[in-house]
């Protein structure tokens, strides 16, 4: 499901072309709905892709809440990348990042 969703992200990004660079909204919306899950996507200006898989039975989450969660994730990811002691490509070892992701997961459940 996630691999298929990444293909959809690539299709949407290529369809947007240069408009994506000028676009401030990087949220791609619902990528791949299935009977059991809904898959949402987000891509950063530096082409980092975030994918969120949500249980289809969760009707409490709205599109604007998913968008807000992606923005929080993006901001936290940016904080990690801006750390001068982080080596790009290494695994992320950040309590703040882990806590933020965990709190988002608890919020969704």
What can you tell me about this protein's structure?
This protein is of the alpha+beta class. The protein has a single domain, classed as Beta-Lactamase (2-Layer Sandwich), CATH 3.30.450.70. Helix content is 48%, strand content 19%. It contains four helices and three strands. It has a three-stranded antiparallel sheet with strand order 1-2-3. Strand 1 (27-33) and strand 2 form a beta hairpin. Helix 3 runs antiparallel to helix 4. The longest helix has 19 residues, at 63-81. It is globular, with a radius of gyration of 14 Å. The two termini are 20 Å apart. The model has no long low-confidence stretch (mean pLDDT 87). It is found in: Cytoplasm, Perinuclear region. Belongs to the TRAPP small subunits family. Sedlin subfamily. One of its GO terms (cellular component) is perinuclear region of cytoplasm.
Give the gist of this structure.
This is Trafficking protein particle complex subunit 2-like protein. The chain has 4 helices and 3 strands.
Structural features:
Beta-Lactamase, 3 strands, globular, three-stranded antiparallel beta sheet, alpha+beta
């Amino acid at each position: 499901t996630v691999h298929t969703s990444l293909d959809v992200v690539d299709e949407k990004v290529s369809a947007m072309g240069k408009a994506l660079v000028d676009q401030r909204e990087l949220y791609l919306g619902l990528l791949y709905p299935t009977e059991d899950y809904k898959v949402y996507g987000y891509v950063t200006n530096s082409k980092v892709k975030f994918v969120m898989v949500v249980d289809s039975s969760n009707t409490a989450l709205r599109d604007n809440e998913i968008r807000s969660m992606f923005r929080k994730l993006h901001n936290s990811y940016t904080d990690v990348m801006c750390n001068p002691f982080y080596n790009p490509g290494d695994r992320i070892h950040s309590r703040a990042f882990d806590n933020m992701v965990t709190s988002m997961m608890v919020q969704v459940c």
